[in-house]
Amino acid sequence: MCKDKLSAHLFFIFGLRTLLGCHRLYKLSIKGRIGKLPEFFHFSSSIAKIAFKASLLEEDPMATLENLPKLSSLTLFDSTFVGEEMACSSKGFPRLLYLKVWGLSNLKRWRIDAGAMPKLCRLVIAHCEQLEMLPDGLKFITTLQKLNVRWMSDDFKDRLRDEGDDFYKVRHVPDIKLD
């Protein structure tokens, strides 16, 4: 990396950490490559809404973001994460109400452990063409009221219909929309 690019990258990393540490930061939207998320303790404890677009994260962002105590809304959009596997651990995302996973074209597997996202009400999954199936752990999220699956393969959507292989994971969800 040339000196100018390295300087700009270091400035961005330290600038991002400074911004994330602002105590009154409530909402954050980041567009563009950031490479790697800072550790969760660099984030303001008051942050409630985060949206990423085209961040090209190679490491699973859930491991960091699930530790934010007041996070209620999370959008991962358009190549935010370029890896193949995401995991949400037990007790992760304690206040998350809304999650949008859109355009993660390399995502193949997504694990949600029992106890994760205990307040999730709305989930949108779209344009994740490689995603093989819904996470099994969705069956434990009894608060889920709305599931919107858009622009996914017919095979993926068929797994969610009555009698489909994944229907048992979401049978408790009153509003399921398959577009």
Strand order of the largest sheet: 1-2-3-5-7-8-9
Task: Report low-confidence residues grouped into runs of 5 or more.
Answer: 1-14
Would you count the extended β strands for me?
Answer: 9
Multimerization state: single chain
CATH architecture: Alpha-Beta Horseshoe
SS summary, helix count: 4
Q: Could you estimate the helical fraction of the residues in percent?
A: 10-25%
Overall pLDDT, averaged? Answer: 89
How many domains comprise the coordinates? 1
Kindly report the name of the CATH homologous superfamily: Ribonuclease Inhibitor
Topology order in helix (H) and strand (E) letters: HEEHEEEEEEHHE
Name the shape in a single word. globular
CATH topology: Leucine-rich repeat, LRR (right-handed beta-alpha superhelix)
Kindly, what is the distance between the CA atoms of the first and last residues, rounded to a whole number of angstroms? 44 Å
Largest sheet: 7 strands, parallel
InterPro entries: LRR_dom_sf
Organism: Olea europaea subsp. europaea
Protein name: Disease resistance At1g50180
